Amino acid sequence: MSINWLELFLLSARNPKAGMSKLLELNFNNFQLLQIAMLAVCLISIFLFLVVSTFGAVLPSALEMQPNQDNIFSTLQSIKPINIVISGIISFVARGIALTYFGRVFNGLGSLRNSILSLAWFDIIHSMGLAIVFIGLWVSPTITILFTLLGTIWLIWIAVSFISVLHNFKNVAFVFFGMIIGYILLHFSLNLIF
Known about the structure:
Blueprint: H1 5-14, H2 16-25, H3 30-62, H4 67-77, H5 81-105, H6 112-139, H7 141-167, H8 172-193
Helix pairs in contact: 1-2, 2-7, 3-4, 3-5, 3-6, 5-6, 5-8, 6-7, 7-8
């Protein structure tokens, strides 16, 4: 099976519904699905660590900080990569399960397998956005912070589109509010457990 990953990535970034439909048509075996999920966790962990540590290193010198804000940035610099990887794995598993079963509560059609695939693909796209943020923080921190807001809106659009295709939901507003409620409930549950 030959897949043009760059073409699929660009399609998913421009037209997330078409990109997700094309991704779900591909037949991956269990080992390939595991590889894609591991790639997603590794990429998101690497770039999340780079962005977090860069925020802690670049922003305090680029912007005027209050004394209490300096403490926040020194905390960011002390985060260890292994902590990000462990939390990334826990988060990925929890989000995959929640995406499947929370969608089924509302008669969604997505399977756990397709949820893992769509979540992994979303995280790969997200990691490419984090890579751009990492580079931007070294070029122009102030402008990068503004573009990060636009990137967040773009990622929400992609997430809503992916969930709509995954569970065959037609109402985008329903998916958006369901996604927000789902993330709040998942975050609350994870905080209770850990």
